[in-house]
Amino acid sequence: MDYKLICIDMDGTLLNDEKIISAKNLRAIKLASEKGVRIAVCTGRIFTSAEFFSELLGVKSPVIASNGAYIREKDRNEVVYKSTLGVEKCKKLLSVFRQYSLYPHYYTSNIVFTEKLIHSSCFYKEVNKTLPKDKQVEIVLVEDWDEIFEKYESEIFKGIAVDEDLEKLQNAKNQLKGMEDFEVVSSRFDNLEVMNKGVSKGNAVKILGDYYGINSKQIICIGDSENDLSMIKFAGLGVAMENGNDAVKKASQYITDSNNCDGVAKVIEKFVLEV
């Protein structure tokens, strides 16, 4: 198959456990790009964070952020697609977070809103220490959520909660899945990520493929977690990482090596470079 687009998840896939893109992965991506294959970073992360790693690839690469709620052709600074939650859905989601005593976080393309530095906001605070100022994620401590929801009505893409109490988290997830307003997935065993109904990595890959005139059979998607399932099922070639969860492996057509053993490079070498 003549593949034209490769969509790659970040954490647990493109990045190793040290949050680094290996030299072998970089080389394979560069060679694929030189063959005319488009490369897209596809992540649950906030856009600013995804953009930084995308630029490290050294190739022209669009970014799918917030699990598909925001797609940007960063090299032309063009927003291809966005789906925001809006005021009422943000409030409805907050009420569920409160019901289960979950700390709320909300994302725009470059801001994390939180009540205190914990979980996701703590993660981005640590990441910021290693980044230049213009690539850092802004972290805003919130006192009045209603004020934030009104001010950023057209900019909030995702809500997220992390908790060690997995039963509580699952109960909240089940309740949110039972509502008509939301799409709910997890990128880790201890989190839930909530977007507008219909938003998913799979839908975003379809939108990006249509944008470039590429059909699903010409697309490779690589991932490891539940939030990657939709794109792996959509792709002509869905690939699971060896370190991926069982559901992802079951849905995939091929299982590559782990994120610590250049699994992404091995996929590209086998199916694109034909090494």
Automatic annotation (TrEMBL):
<dbReference type="InterPro" id="IPR023214">
    <property type="entry name" value="HAD_sf"/>
</dbReference>
<dbReference type="GO" id="GO:0016791">
    <property type="term" value="F:phosphatase activity"/>
</dbReference>
<dbReference type="Pfam" id="PF08282">
    <property type="entry name" value="Hydrolase_3"/>
</dbReference>
<protein>
    <submittedName>
        <fullName>Haloacid dehalogenase</fullName>
    </submittedName>
</protein>
<dbReference type="InterPro" id="IPR006379">
    <property type="entry name" value="HAD-SF_hydro_IIB"/>
</dbReference>
<dbReference type="GO" id="GO:0000287">
    <property type="term" value="F:magnesium ion binding"/>
</dbReference>
<dbReference type="InterPro" id="IPR000150">
    <property type="entry name" value="Cof"/>
</dbReference>
<dbReference type="GO" id="GO:0005829">
    <property type="term" value="C:cytosol"/>
</dbReference>
<dbReference type="InterPro" id="IPR036412">
    <property type="entry name" value="HAD-like_sf"/>
</dbReference>
